[in-house]
Write a structure and sequence with these properties.
Largest sheet: 6 strands, antiparallel
Number of strands: 8
Strand content: 25-35%
Shape: globular
Order of helices and strands: EEEEEEHEEHH
Length: 179
């Protein structure tokens, strides 16, 4: 949570225990610094393209989300390392192709940084044989998790659908396909 915990081993705000490490060996360890600026916290998500971390931007002094390009099956990383290892042969060619798409996604997302309902992109860069997108951190529950907990009223569901469709309309209007 990047709040002051004093000299306590366990954070009183979020329960993070200093030195407890990452959830999976292939994830960046909490405390890892990227681009001499972004301090990695815990992993908050994993998908086909990569891993998303909660992080702290030491220059802007705020919490951000860092999306690391880490395509499953094309790379690996030893525990405690920053650099990814890229598999050889066809997998290396596929990695390069997907990396180019990842960076293009970052450029495209940056076009919408001031749009409502679309997350802001602050930065993106290559490093450690991979790439990273630095985005606005939104401290809110995931819609899919909320749907597991309760049923939405028609009005509430309609409101979410309209917001999603408006955001997708802006993106699609610029010939970008959101996957």
């Amino acid at each position: 949570c990047f709040q002051a915990k004093g000299n306590r081993a366990v954070c009183p705000h979020c329960g993070y225990e200093q030195g407890s490490g990452q959830e999976q060996a292939y994830q960046l360890a909490p405390g890892t610094v990227l681009h001499k600026r972004y301090v990695i916290g815990v992993s908050i998500g994993f998908g086909g393209f990569g891993i998303t971390y909660k992080a702290f931007d030491t220059m802007l002094r705020m919490i951000v989300a860092v999306k690391e390009f880490y395509p499953a099956g094309l790379v690996n990383r030893a525990g405690g390392e920053k650099k990814v290892g890229i598999f050889s042969g066809e997998k290396k060619a596929e990695f390069q192709k997907q990396l180019a798409r990842f960076l293009e996604e970052a450029r495209n997302m940056a076009l919408f940084s001031k749009e409502q309902d679309i997350v802001n992109v602050y930065d993106f860069f290559e490093g450690n044989q991979t790439a990273y997108i630095i985005m606005e951190y939104v401290d809110a529950p995931l819609l899919k998790e909320e749907l597991k907990k309760r049923r939405f009223s028609q009005e509430e569901a309609g409101g979410y659908m309209l917001a999603l469709l408006e955001a997708l309309g802006k993106v699609h209007g610029n010939h970008i396909i959101h996957k």
